[in-house]
Specification:
single chain, mainly beta, 4-stranded antiparallel sheet, globular
Length: about 375
């Protein structure tokens, strides 16, 4: 993504106490699931440990554990280095064993973590399962580059792997030790699998021809179901769509352009919700021209990032948003008057409504934040 935005996007998070709104809630094992829209959030920043410049998180599970990576400097070479990490109950831990480099991209509710390692050079990456003591290589479809993006509650893992030395990539499914090529929409084309739910539904993106990448015009949001792949289409007259996440109910969220040639993250890209065969555009904030999706939870709430008025892309400058029942909310409007942070990007979200975000403090320093629903 950027290391992140294209798949699950960076996020790092500290979790503060979840206060459930005095409204209807549903109890699920291990967590409270917020069933109505929150009236506000508290904002807590993850501190950066000594020896590192930044900590970036991706996802948060039901136990409020956040995974991502920490960026610092390798003392032996003086070069920048990223190390996979987790943050839980105020404690920061490195993953993958001594000196492992790479990033953790997802964690399931069993605490099992996936991501990638960079064993030799940043241009080489291996999809991996990660613990505090080791990294288990998941294998390859033929090349020397790959990431594991998501793991479901059954420990099925999806991601992408290079299929040759030429840079072509295919989505994969790892299940009980076996790595399977998911294929794509076109012979010779490329694909990426970005998420999988507990029913085994897999979403991602695939090219419709050769000579273009998975985030270029011509690529399509796709759904793999039982070995079959389906093109989910685009919004309007668009020619590019990307499915990012799928929840337990089979709702899919992603991003599509609305006219030919509009590029990923730039003006014209709009978030969508797909369910029961229909792709519906999610509204833009006033003055915004582009949005990207971060996550979707059990309730169908969708997080994301939208360009600020005057910016021509989400990557230039953005605000963090959430869509609830088709309505868009600027998360900055719900942070209980906390003017210390400008919340710019929203990524991972759990069913309790906790959200991993990035924000900027008064000194201009970017921080990873956790937004926790609060009582009104």
């Amino acid at each position: 993504m950027m290391v992140a935005t294209r798949v699950r996007m960076h996020s790092r998070v500290f979790v503060c106490c979840l206060l459930i709104v005095a409204q209807l809630v549903v109890w699920l094992p291990g967590r409270m699931v917020l069933a109505t829209a929150p009236s506000g959030y508290t904002v807590t920043a993850i501190p950066v440990p000594d020896g590192y410049q930044t900590v970036l998180g991706y996802t948060i599970n039901a136990k409020s554990t956040v995974v991502g990576f920490a960026s610092g400097t390798d003392p032996s070479t003086g070069q920048p280095v990223d190390r996979p990490m987790l943050f839980q109950k105020g404690k920061f831990k490195l993953l993958g064993g001594d000196g492992a480099t790479g990033a953790a991209l997802d964690i399931n509710n069993r605490g099992h973590i996936v991501g990638f390692t960079t064993p030799s050079t940043p241009s080489e990456s291996h999809p991996a399962m990660l613990t505090t003591s080791e990294a288990t290589d998941l294998g390859s479809l033929g090349g020397n580059m790959g990431w594991a993006y998501a793991i479901n509650g059954n420990d099925q893992i999806v991601g992408y792997s290079a299929i040759d030395a030429g840079g072509s990539v295919h989505g994969f499914l790892w299940d009980e030790g076996e790595l399977s090529d998911l294929g794509g929409l076109a012979e010779g084309g490329m694909s990426i699998a970005s998420d999988i739910n507990d029913k085994g539904l897999i979403v991602g993106v695939a090219t419709t021809g050769t000579g273009s990448g998975p985030f270029d015009p011509g690529a399509r949001a796709v759904l793999w179901d039982g070995g079959d792949i389906a093109d989910l289409g685009t919004l309007g007259d668009g020619d590019l769509s990307v499915a990012i996440v799928v929840n337990s109910g089979g709702q899919i969220a992603g991003t599509s352009n609305t006219a030919p040639g509009q590029t990923y993250g730039s003006s014209g890209m709009q978030a969508f919700l797909w369910e029961e065969g229909e792709m519906t555009a999610l509204p833009l904030p006033k003055g915004s021209t582009a949005c990207l999706v971060g996550d979707i939870n059990k309730q169908g709430w969708v997080t994301g990032s939208c360009s600020v008025p005057g910016a021509d892309s989400v990557f230039a400058d953005s605000i963090a948003v959430i869509w609830i029942d088709g309505e868009i909310i600027d998360l900055n409007s719900l942070t209980k008057g906390d003017g210390q942070w400008t919340v710019q990007q929203a990524f991972g979200m759990n069913d309790a409504g906790e959200i991993v975000c990035h924000g900027v403090g008064p000194d201009g320093t970017q921080q990873t934040l956790i937004l926790s629903p609060t009582e009104s």
